[in-house]
Amino acid sequence: MSQTQSLQSNTSESKPVQYSKTYHFPVQIYYEDTDFSGVVYHPNFLKYFERAREHVIGANELAKLWDEHDLGFAVYRSDMLCHDGVEFADIIDIRTKFYFESKYRTVWLQEIWRPSGKKPAVTAQIEMICMNKKRQLSPMPPQLIGRLGEAFSETVIF
User: Alpha-carbon distance 45 to 49, whole Å?
Assistant: First the structure.
């Protein structure tokens, strides 16, 4: 069983999962990202995943969501596995796809690939929830669902 399949098995079995297209986001590994041995310090992977998700949604869209709708996203759950080291001077490819769990939650499957990698160096499943400024669970606005829904081959229905 592949890592992606095992991560998917953590999701609800009651409905079929419809994934977005895969997005690619390059990240240059700098010396400051690494520990004494030149290998990326593991918490930095979460930062890279966050940047890739922001790239998919769009910084302007996130700012608009906060400024006009008093809404933002928070990590509800994360599961990350490190399979291989990522090293200083690598330019890695963050591969991201997601699906809507509900109008409140998105689930992001993300992988870090090293140059010429035969398998992902790091894999993660990160669940994000939409919350208002009072930190209460809130549905994503229809226009955001519509914009993110463009990444799917079929219409997303809740």
Answer: 6
- 122-132 vs 23-28, strand pairing mode: unpaired
Q: How far apart are CA 18 and CA 120, in angstroms?
A: 22
| H helix or E strand, kind and range, residue 65 | helix 59-69
Report yes or no: 28 and 91 within 8 Å, Cβ to Cβ.
yes
Residues 23-71 pLDDT 10s: 999 999 999 999 999 999 999 999 999 999 999 999 999 999 999 999 9
CA dist 85 and 3 (Å) reads 16
Candidates 153, 140, 155; CA nearest to 71 is 140
In the block, which residue shows the tokens 């930190």? 135
Separation CA 143–CA 131 (nearest Å):
16
Rg (CA), the chain: 16
pTM for the model stands at 0.87
